[in-house]
Design brief:
Shape: globular
Strand order of the largest sheet: 6-7-8-3-9-10
Distance between the termini: 20 Å
Radius of gyration: 18 Å
Number of strands: 10
Length: about 250
């Protein structure tokens, strides 16, 4: 990824408001092809809400979310489906179906959206699980594996259809530092191998400094973004006390 990479995602003047409650106003940001872009801020600032707007689960009161120039907020029917089919999403809990094996979880989107034969699906599922370090765990149930392994299984499902944009909501939540580091390394490997653009919601400082190319800071008090840029650059130059307090709370650079 370089500074000359083309814009992949553009958020322009987004307002997130529910009834009379303002979550955030006037969010504008650009995510370039191949970037790992972090949405950060304190609890309750609207990080996950912004991600849900970006994947089309919520509709903004105002503003636009464009993917390669196409506005998700106004797209309908097949145009909207063609946009969202490009997304792979890893939710905070992993969101695996507890009654399905890992292989069945990963196979679900492939069966739903492709016409591949069963042998082809089985081969692809085995490949996706191998990519996240879960070769040989195809027949395990989610309850039979660790939290870190469930996150990796959720990631295998997120990349099942070879998306070019990946969204992660607090991927390291609930993981020990070693598992969190392994997941960060896996995200970097997948970004490089798939050529994907990655948007991550997180408050984990180690992950932010380890993998983020760029970021936006959402402020809960003013309910607006107050900083944009690479986290390490913000740590050195951003004058906003809220940003400095967030980035200096025992920051560990890996």
């Amino acid at each position: 990824m370089t500074a000359l990479a083309p814009p992949r995602i553009e958020v322009d003047g987004l307002d997130m408001i529910f009834d009379a409650y303002v979550v955030q106003r006037d969010i504008s940001m650009t995510v370039h092809q191949g970037e790992i872009f972090v949405i950060m801020g304190g609890s309750g600032c609207g990080k996950s809400t912004l991600l849900r707007h970006m994947i089309g689960l919520l509709t903004p009161v105002k503003g636009a979310i464009r993917y390669d120039g196409d506005n998700l907020c106004t797209a309908v029917g097949r145009d909207r489906n063609s946009l969202t089919r490009r997304f792979g999403v890893l939710f905070q809990s992993g969101a695996l179906w507890s009654s399905m094996t890992l292989a069945e979880n990963v196979a679900l989107p492939i069966r739903t959206y492709t016409s591949l034969t069963e042998p082809e699906i089985e081969e692809l599922v085995a490949l996706k699980l191998a990519l996240v370090g879960l070769r040989g765990f195809e027949d395990y149930m989610p309850a039979e594996i660790s939290g870190g392994m469930r996150k990796r299984a959720g990631l295998a499902r997120a990349i099942a259809l070879d998306p070019d944009i990946l969204f992660f909501d607090e991927p390291s939540a609930g993981l020990d530092p070693i598992s969190s580091k392994r997941l960060d390394d896996l995200i970097l490997e997948l970004r490089d191998s798939l050529g994907a653009t990655v948007v991550i919601v997180t408050h984990e400082l180690a992950s932010i400094f380890a993998i983020a190319d760029n970021s936006i800071f959402l402020d809960a008090e003013t309910r607006t973004p107050i900083a944009h840029g690479p986290p390490k650059a913000l740590l050195e130059t951003c004058p906003e006390p809220q940003v400095q307090a967030f980035l200096r709370r025992g920051a560990v650079k890996r």
